[in-house]
């Protein structure tokens, strides 16, 4: 339900064209699609600039199937994240026209053709961080942005980053994906004026504590202007960059 | 040293007007001011869009004094954060013209008069979060932004937030400052399309673990587009919002 | 042994009809069934309002088998929780008349036909929380309550919750099952006057720490009247709601 | 704003007696009192069965003062919790008619004279847990309940608990306040059929981890029907017991 | 090398019958058996009252094989603990005369026939704790003690423990094996005067944190006279009880 | 109430000399002294071999005073532990004949003159561990044991321990008090056949985590026969050694 | 690019033989090899004394393949660490001439024949620590050092260490690899004057917390001169020893 | 006792010039000085290359006094670390000739005049890390090394480090002292071939967790050749660097 429709509805009520129970029912039922096991938030795109996204881990197969069937009848972009191989098979059977981005573990349907907005760069510390970086990159691209990928430029060999300084300085938002001690965030943050979204990865072992060390390290970066999302949360990093970039391009 | 000066310097070297040792010395010495105990990064404003900031806790008084004396001879904005009462007295003695924002524990000198950029809103869950929120607000204001303050609208009484939805939807960046379970971040993030910077506070007790629970909770928000800074890090929240807002206003 | 039987026994002793050793033996042996490996607490239903429940993980198959054989000879309700597929096969072979609730991983025998007590609502944040919610729901139902299921109404799209406010406000006890940051607990708790039992789930990843973040977050909810059970402990949530509901309905 | 007033308001709007902007302004402004630094949720009593409560730690004195002045003009019960000695002095100066419960660190104004509802028992493991127990007891009493106090009956000398079994079995809700390993919760929970609210205290040292051990231990109690609130959260324990008790007594 | 042999050796050296290098070589080489990958401490039985024990997890199969071959040529008791099925097969192939205690995951060779010393009781909270309890029991029995097993008498149904009070009060050392909140330790410790060795198990889930909660809880027991070993460390519990019992029976 | 008295009481009841309510009242009231705020377990000495002990931290002064007054009228040993300077003053005023052991922070009254039982050794790693060691030593001495003190023999200079090997090997129970990495426990445990009670201290800093590191380290000692009590819990260490030693000396 | 080449390049630029864009391009591109997914730091050997090392976990097979192909065309030593069986197969197919050290999970190509530098000893506490020790040993050997292996000399039987004291005292750097409580580090550190690199292993269970306890314990060793690397980080331990040893042998 | 004296002693024994009890007494008593409360390890300098060091926190004043009196009669260097102001006063009264290094919180007596060994550099991230850095620097200097101090060159402004690259590359051991995310360690480690000793500081707040984040981050540095000491352990960092440097200079 768009904002305009909402205003119309209120006026109908005021004019007595619909009564108490009708307006309550309309407002209550419209903005999501009730599948019993799930209630798809079809209104989110308008409200938040990000469409409904299906986080797949832990879903009972029958529930995932219901969601696919509902998605098949919707018109907006629908993204499935953290798709396992088994789930991918199930989803692609229900939605054969969907695109499957295997490295990113993402499946998307109803992809909108559009001009991409320039302004997002995604940087990784190592090669092992690429899966998470791709989750961020595909997410941002599906939402209408162009993404510059700068991979394997970690702080252990800082000179590998320098050729990309120019690209970084042109970005409206930079996503830094790194594991281990995550020092790359501080190095990048100290060289640019764009907001930096840090995505800690669980790459590492032992005292890395499944990425908690990287997460905590990034939160303590001595460079201001860095904010952080959950471990391995490439999706969240991509969305944050997208929201910044669309504001810079003047979208509401 | 501005970018233009840097280019000039390289050309002088190329033309043989300065030799190897001169150019190395210049590049090495220029962009910071060496006080022995400290090396002020005078170049940061140009590079990162944020001036050098002095984080005060743990500083030996003599070192803080040296930094004040150096700041007195500089022309750019200089911000002291987390100033204790004792340190405030010391700093204000050295820099009597400085402004002291007591609730925010900030002291600033060489404040630039300028038109403020619209676009930042700062929201708190409770009254006890205001100190941290003020650190964010003063930081963003000193850097040239106008800030909308929306305080004490926590998720326990969600209707208190609704009158401000319009203000929130106009913002380019929203800083949400909350303690305890930090649910306000999810509620706000689910209603707007602006990027949300979450600042967890250490307000709470027991299983709040000095703010760690709030921090972890915010990192796990089921709303995408939320990124998080360190506990009580109002300064970092303010800077992130500032960097986004200046990009939206077309600054490099 | 009912309370009446206990009083009778004490009087027999007082009257000299049974001697020291007899009363001690009777009291010591009656209220549980000793299987060697296990001592089934057959007295719990009378004492606590909840029958003996078999927590299955880690049980050696032979021990589980003994317990099944004992249960076959008992008359009261007997619930097996956290049943793995292998264990389900073993139990159903021993107790072919038992009911198997697969999504809830519960098996029950000697189910009592009875009028259900109204008054329990179970709410989930997402679709992935349904397994835990079903453990709570089946538990409460087996113990004689009617359960209202309200699934996938998480705080990211708060409007999905509103149509159910009326149902929630009629409940005597509300179980909120959620993962990630668990903000739904605060939102629900802020809208109703029923006691809220929060069940954190391990749905999430990274800084979710296997549900610890959700657990800690719920414990710090800024809404009073929320109490919390262990991670994924749908059973405990169901029992707490049951104990409240039966008190409201006047049971001792 | 009561429910009846809300319905009236909607009808006025429908009849055209108030227009769009008026209804929005009314709904937006009515249910809380805006003090700038704070927004008192005056509507909570009706909505949640618990009046607005002021959590005092970390409040800037000027803000606390504003809240007191507002409270002086309100008619409903107003409770200040976790009051420090300094804050107590400030509050009592503004609200000289208020009651100060020092052991519980609570101050209350506008206390309602009413018949107390029977049905709450509060139990402590040791003498050192009494401060937290009193916070629970005073809270429940202020909200209209009668409280049975059973103090220092910890599991190390379990026979001290037995004389109180009868009292415990009559309760509608039992609050167990204990530190260290919190075993009292399991012992009590195994003997009664009332819902048990466990309040871990920070009494202990070393591996007690400021109460975290007690909290975790209680969450893992092998007795079902136990739910837990935050460490030292006597207030929360008291409210949960109150919400259960009022439901049992047939209040909405 | 016995103490007598050691004294002889020193006298030979003093009398000049052996020289510097000889005595050093003898002392250095005698008390263990060097297998390259392992150095079996053949002297431990004399020194510590406990023979060399082989902790099996993580051992490379070839190394385990070497140890078996060495054990085959030794005369003292040799215990392999935490034996996996694969390792059991390997060990039993090398040492076909060895005894395999499957529930305890222990294999032993060179078992000494001897009169068992009375005085050890082993208690479990639930049926799922039996594996760990058996590790303790078999360990203590192999070292020459008689063990009273009292299983499934957890604190949720405390009356199941009472028939065994007499047995417990006769014990010289009591090993309490329990998971979840471990309250059984406090209950037992409050009823007896024997030293209690608490063995936390990893039975539980969620906030049990793999047994850390049980461990911490037991360390905070409000009953003095309880000491604790590592999670699931039945072996350590058995050895501690054995060392106490043999002292009581007058062994050095 | 001694065991004999208990038997008498039961026979009176059987003979009809006392009735239902009388026996219940007697059993319920006898074994502790009810002070309202506290219920002194006067029966513990008989039951557990350890008298009632007053853990002082967090006690409200009035409550401590009541306990002192009660103790003045009791005949058995009464120990106050963790006494702060303020509390010491209060206690000594009420109980002027009490003994104050300042380094151990213990006050004791009604000390029994008796022959001390040989057999306990207490060892510390460093000088900073002595406060905790003294708590253990004074506790064990007050309960009737002779204690050998061996202080400052930490593993960094292992030769300092060797002169005491003979003393250690004669002990029935050894208490090892150490901070930092606690390696002394492993070294001592590898040289003796007595049970070792490890007391981790909070001596250290940073990654010592207030003693948690020492505690965890000791729990993971590669030497079997070591059991552990809470951080800085000298009292618990002393009691465990006492319980072992009295068993060795044939006490029940 | 060697240092000499770098100086030449700068002079060409100064002499005008190369221009601005050329020098930037050269500096930017030379010191690493860009494979798209990876940027091999071919300059590290010169800069850091350690060649580029490929950390294998988490690498997408295609990426690992690209790295192998690049390595095939390089001349310097290239080490793959933490190679899984599957990865080993892939790497050895691409680089059939490579050496596979299975216990150490290392594959190396372009191994340099050279005289080994004496001076490194590697010590383990138990047999289960050997995998990690071998990672350290092979690493140090591949980089040109001779390694003395002293395995299974843990602190539980300290006499097993003494025959090796002479070897240890001759070493320039000692790597101590141990699990559980890691006491061996303190014992070794207290006997030698060489710097000790401690490598905690994840050998242990329960409160060992996957090696965190060993790590923390080692960091708190009461012996100075011990420094620590990550859990199971044999590679890091080997490199640190190598860097020390080559300095002692006068390498830059 | 030097090694030569030890050999002499053994020969006296062999020749019958001293008997069993004499040699045992001599060996047992010589290498430390027994003060009752403390046993000074006077032999450590010879054995470990580091003299006995007195760690002051938690010492009872009388004990510290005894140690001072003993130190006054010794001839070797004696260092007191972590001296509080009160303790400094006490020590300087006993040892008026001692040197007090206030910023480093170190007091030293019997300082040896000697030529300093070149080769140690100490680097800090910020000004607030200087206290810890000075502890490292003074320690290394007292033990005979010359120290290059490079302060406030943190990774947020990496250009401040470059002028010191030459100094760093000449060092035999580099101590990096940093707080927050500790990224400086990775940056330095990626530029030099000297072994790097990382000293995390507790500078930071919130998710810094008292330095644990910095510690964990440094342990996960993606640069090999970095080893880490405890939080704020400047002393340990200084000793490790000293042990490396003296090996490079050919000392045993």
Automatic annotation (TrEMBL), chains A, B, C, D, E, F, G, H:
Source species, domain of life: Bacteria
Single GO MF descriptor: hydrolase activity
One record GO biological process: 'de novo' IMP biosynthetic process
SUPFAM superfamilies according to UniProt: N5-CAIR mutase (phosphoribosylaminoimidazole carboxylase, PurE) (SSF52255)
Residue span, PurE domain: 118-250
Signal peptide residue numbers: none
Cross-referenced NCBIfam families: LarB
Protein name as catalogued: PurE domain-containing protein
């Amino acid at each position: 339900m768009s904002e305009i429709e909402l205003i119309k509805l209120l006026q109908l009520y005021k004019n007595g064209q619909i009564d108490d129970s009708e307006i309550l029912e309309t407002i209550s039922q419209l903005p999501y699609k009730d599948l019993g096991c799930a209630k798809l938030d079809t209104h989110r795109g308008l409200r938040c600039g990000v469409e409904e996204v299906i986080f797949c881990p832990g879903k009972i197969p029958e529930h995932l199937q219901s969601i696919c069937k509902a998605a098949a009848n919707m018109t907006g972009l629908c993204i499935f994240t953290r798709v396992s191989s088994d789930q991918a098979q199930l989803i692609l059977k229900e939605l054969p026209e969907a695109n499957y981005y295997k490295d990113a573990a993402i499946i998307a349907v109803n992809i909108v053709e559009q001009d991409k907005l320039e302004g997002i760069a995604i940087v990784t510390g190592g090669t092992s961080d690429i899966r998470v970086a791709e989750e961020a990159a595909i997410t941002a691209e599906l939402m209408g942005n162009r993404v510059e990928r700068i991979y394997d430029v970690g702080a252990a060999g800082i000179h590998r980053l320098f050729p990309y300084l120019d690209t970084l300085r042109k970005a409206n938002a930079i996503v830094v994906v790194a594991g281990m001690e995550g020092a790359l965030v501080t190095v990048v943050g100290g060289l640019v004026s764009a907001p930096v979204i840090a995505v800690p990865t669980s790459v590492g072992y032992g005292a890395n504590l499944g990425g908690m060390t990287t997460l905590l390290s990034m939160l303590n970066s001595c460079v201001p202007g860095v904010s952080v999302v959950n471990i391995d949360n490439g999706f969240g990093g991509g969305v944050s960059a997208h929201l910044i970039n669309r504001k810079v391009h003047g979208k509401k």
